[in-house]
Design a protein that fits this description.
With about 250 residues, the protein is mainly α. It folds into two domains: about 5-130, Fe,Mn superoxide dismutase (SOD) domain (Helix Hairpins, Orthogonal Bundle), CATH 1.10.287; about 145-250, Iron/manganese superoxide dismutase, C-terminal domain (minor pseudopilin epsh fold, 3-Layer(bab) Sandwich), CATH 3.55.40. Helix content is about 45%, strand content about 10%. It contains nine helices and three strands, in the order H-H-H-H-H-H-E-E-E-H-H-H. It has helices at about 5-15, 65-90, 100-105, 110-130, 145-155, 160-170, 220, 225-230, 240-250, and strands spanning about 175-180, 190-195, 205-210. A three-stranded antiparallel β-sheet has the order 2-1-3. The longest helix is centred in the N-terminal third of the chain and has 23 residues, at about 65-90. It is globular. The protein binds fe (ii) ion (FE2). Fe (ii) ion binds near residues 73, 77, 215 and 216. It catalyses: 2 superoxide + 2 H(+) = H2O2 + O2.
Length: about 250
Amino acid sequence: MDRRHAMKLIALGAATLPLAPQRVFALAGAAAAPAAAPAAAPPAPSGPFTLPALGYAFDALEPHFDAQTMQIHHDKHHAAYVNNLNKAVAGRAEVAGWTIEQLLRDLGKVPEDIRTAVRNHGGGHHNHSLFWTSLKKGGPAAPTGTFAEALAKTFGSVEGFQSKFDAAAAAVFGSGWAWLAADSTGALKVLSTPNQDSPLTQGLAPLLGLDVWEHAYYLKFQNRRAEYVTAFHSVVDWDVVAERHAAATKG
Ligand SMILES: [Fe+2]
């Protein structure tokens, strides 16, 4: 498949999300990105949830993750999850004031008629928010300190963890996520979830997630998911993952 065809597929995927994003947000460093739209004043939020800034330039993770995918992924896909989540909870006093984490942890208490929308779009919002903040070019190449020891205790070695995580990412059939997560005691676990399901709904704290929806990698890697997974390991911010583990262990 050539690049033009791949672009069409990515664009189609964004366009067929249930609600086309109405808001394009100015991002930190966006001016340096090759395809950045002119920054405009962000419109007033249309609900309680907002698209977080990416926090770095679209091309910050090159050559591992390409700028065009990062821009489409954040500005179109993630924005659509936020907009659809806001639509789902609009006017619903039962969940007014709930955080995104509350919605996903207590999904069974969300009114049944909006539960699927909250599961899909709320999960999409939280998963992507976690994803962007897990990435950093030039971060530590591997976990260190007590967190590295915890990984080794559970998986035999850091390499043992990576092997299990990569296998989970490869085994996702269709769209979903591979995760490193922790339970309330800090015990580590590798798992995958379908679609936009969150480990929070299973009572787990997500520490590191890899988006293996095709929209996350098809433009650069096409069907070569394994290469995308390998590239991911070059941009993980292990300091952030270790901080999340410490927070999960403290409860
Ligand atoms: Fe995604």
